[in-house]
Amino acid sequence: MIRLSVNIDHVATIRQARRTDEPDPVWAAVEAELAGADGITFHLREDRRHINDRDAELLRRTVQSPLNMEMSIAPEIVKIAAKLAPPIVTLVPERREELTTEGGLDVVKLRAKLKPIVKKLRDAGCATSAFIEPRAEQIAASAECGFATVELWTGGYAHAKGPAKQLAALQALAQGIEAGWQHGLTVRGGHGLTYRNVRDLASLGGFEELNIGHSIVSRAVIVGMREAVREMKRLIDSADAVMDSDG
Questions:
Q1: What range defines the domain where residue 168 resides?
Q2: 50 counts as catalytic
Q3: Is residue 191 annotated as a catalytic residue, yes or no?
Q4: For position 76, what pLDDT does the model report?
Q5: Domain of 87: which CATH number?
Q6: Does the first or last residue of the chain, that is N or C, have fewer Cβ atoms within 10 Å of its Cβ?
């Protein structure tokens, strides 16, 4: 079965719009877990635009399912991650001007910088993941750097216009999944996934986990976090069931 990790960043985005203390992303994580989320994801950005240090510390102490910290390779953030030692860390590209993480980390270009960072985080007890585009050279470089997991950027599929482009994007992801397996990596996926597009992607098979945030938080505003998580899990599980029956 494909696991669902719920990204709670945008609960904090709503809080920061008024610079107050609600809604609390830590409580949102509890609600997501109570609904059956298989993991919780958060991104501690350098500019602290949503999740802050207090949130990160409380999430580390309270989340019972696997906690995944998305992070840049900035020295300050690496130091915090090594101290917090969440079960999973996912290295992502980060630019101040972006609304959300766009595209994947260029592991090929950054491999010399990444190797000591990966070692430091592994020595701290963290499983390491690279958020990358589904390209063979990036997957091979991730394995070379010592990452245990790759999270494939699914934005190419999520943003594709028309059936032909969507199919091409799905095929690229299927090839990325296969390449990850060949390099002995666990493969996850995330970015731009919604209630409308997740089922076709989950039907590919091969993903251990999908990381979904904005769509779930948006739905939670209407129906509550528990129901929003349950609805997404039902869609993913139904795709899994079809895949198993075909398999």
A1: 3-246
A2: no
A3: yes
A4: 96
A5: 3.20.20.70
A6: C
Beta bridge partners, 71, equal 91
Cα gap 231→235, rounded to integer Å: 6
Rounded Cα gap, residues 107 and 113, in angstroms: 9
Omega cis (within 30) before 23: yes
pLDDT, tens only, 144-174? 999 999 999 999 999 999 999 999 999 999 9
Buried b (16+ CB within 10 A) or exposed e, 214-226: bbbbebbeeeebb
Question: What does residue 77 show for φ and ψ, rounded to 5 degrees?
Answer: -70, -40
70 among known catalytic residues: yes
Burial of 240 (0-12, 13-18, 19+ CB in 10 A): middle
Q: Which amino acid is at 74?
A: A
pLDDT tier, 239 (very low <50, low <70, confident <90, very high otherwise) = confident
Identified catalytic residue from 33, 43, 50, 133? 43
> Could you write out the three-class secondary structure of 50-77?
CCCHHHHHHHHHHCCCCEEEEECCCHHH
- Specify the number of domains making up the chain: 1
Question: What type of residue sits at position 137?
Answer: E
